[in-house]
Fold:
Amino acid sequence: MQSQIDSGAKDHTADRPLVAEFRAATKRYGAVLAADALSFGIGRGEFLSFLGPSGCGKTTALRMLAGFDPPTSGDVYLDGERVTDVPAYRRPVNMVFQHYALFPHMTVAQNIGYGLLQRRPRPGRDEVARKVDRALDMVRLTGFGPRRIWEMSGGQQQRVALARAIVNEPKVLLLDEPLAALDRKLRREMQIELQTLQRQLGITFVLVTHDQEEALSMSDRICIMRGGRIVQSGSPNALYDQPVSRYVADFVGKSNFIDGTLTARTATEGQIECASGLRFAGRVSGALAAGARAALSIRPEQIDLAHSARPGAEPVTVINRIFLGEHTEYLVRHASLGDLMVLVARQAEASAGRFAPGDAGFISWAPETGLILPQD
Structure:
């Protein structure tokens, strides 16, 4: 089964057998509708992310899959078997929590082997030790078994939590914002390690995050959630380049929006007119009809900022400049369009010249880079 709205890109479950499936899974907490008839499949070996703001339903979807919160109605399947009423401890899934939930009184090895000791029949001591050592090797913590948890750094504790989750060889590994407590540099390193580990193990990973960079960098497929529903799913590239709504364009990456009315359109292109009378062309997303309220989305890196006027360019004033290493972020102000963000690559800025706050400039973009979207 497919997600409620698909991006139109290749479905990443099409060439994979399904390891998990939601069938009209709905979850209510009293009067609150946390998940609204979710219906979609997760392919074996896929790295899937639920992305959205707080309260959108992404954690509820994860907890229904884990068995912590059974759906109020609808069903959840794992490997083709209905597990809606199967408790969490009997499901072939493991979870890595945001705060790791490690046992401080146990050693690293004891933490990792804890789940193995809960199996019936219980494996032998030598088998537990062998599997714990293998899990430590996988997360690059060879020889750390005797250490105490409080002797480990935050990144090392995160790896221990991963080792504890994978030692049981689950069919699905659930990740509930596992990198949120790490600093930016360590978070990036762990993103790479998670990707590498997932490829090595071949286990299906399902990640919940509100960090778009995290989802974009690691996922095969992303489900964008809002109000308990999936509003669009697809590959990171498809969601970035072909969002179906202003909400998705605003949540996946950075974007500038110019509000107006769709005055004319063909099958794929259209023109939007702003309140000031300015008109801009762009690609049209969805079934927008002429006369509909719309927004033109332009990514900051697609805008050219120049010192001199060019045909079709609009005059702006530079309000702020932030140097970010590989590129510079400019905030510019247009008399009628308001504030817009522009990203200039370092090499381009070096050849064209930098701007300072208060400088006059001109912005322009290729018509095909603009995307006309429905207003949410």
Observations:
- The radius of gyration is 24 Å.
- Residues 254-374 form a domain with the OB fold (Dihydrolipoamide Acetyltransferase, E2P) fold (CATH 2.40.50.140).
- Residues 1-11 have pLDDT under 50 and may be disordered.
- DSSP finds nine helices and 20 strands in the chain.
